[in-house]
Amino acid sequence: MNSLNSEAFVLFDQHILWSDMVGNILGLAGLALGWRRSIWSWPVQFLSGLILFGAFFGHLTGSAGKQAVVMTVALYGWWQWNRDRSGSADGHITPRFATWRERAAMAGAAAAGTVAVALLFKAYPTLSWDPWPDAYIFVGTIVAMYAQARGMVEFWFAWLLVDLVGVPLNFANGYAFSGFVYVIYGALVLWGMRDWWLRSRTGSRPALEGAPA
């Protein structure tokens, strides 16, 4: 696994690692496939997590643990989309807006999860260099992946909120390639959000509780 952490090239005086480059490119591809509502979004996201897990294992325990959680959520997303797409006319999931109850649950879980993970990172400094923003990005990613698994349009809003912190954090920590990828994430999120929003209007309308704001 040491080869994953070897240098691929230098960009703007930043040393780009193979693991950083390959893992983030696969993550970007997984998000693009999610935009297209392709079931292959989940295997690609799982592979991205697996590569980064292998790169971090034995070196950055906290980062490796985060990728293990990402892979677990990817398996859940694969199972959920396989179940939901069977009832769709085009063989893909039908995007929908979350109910107000679901929104409140995700917001509460994100807030509580961020505090809990940040306190864990602060208690064990070797797990993270930047406890609070790192916890925010980690928990936000899990919430976004969960919303994607349930076919919620809010999935894109969650990713956008992650990007707002992820871009400056990656550049500040010297992960230039990750920072550039997050910028591309932002553009892809806006396109994907528009597509899912429009598709949610052409699909089955939610109940009154789930009506969009």
UniProtKB/TrEMBL annotation:
Name used for this protein in its record: Nicotinamide riboside transporter PnuC
Highest taxon of the lineage: Bacteria
Family under the similarity heading: Belongs to the nicotinamide ribonucleoside (NR) uptake permease (TC 4.B.1) family.
A Pfam family per the record: NMN_transporter
Membrane topology field: Multi-pass membrane protein
Alphabetical list of PANTHER family matching this protein: NICOTINAMIDE RIBOSIDE TRANSPORTER PNUC
Record's subcellular location: Cell membrane
Ranges that cross the membrane: 16-35, 42-61, 104-124, 136-162, 174-193
UniProt keywords, alphabetically: Cell membrane, Membrane, Transmembrane, Transmembrane helix, Transport
InterPro entries named in the record: NMN_transpt_PnuC (IPR006419)
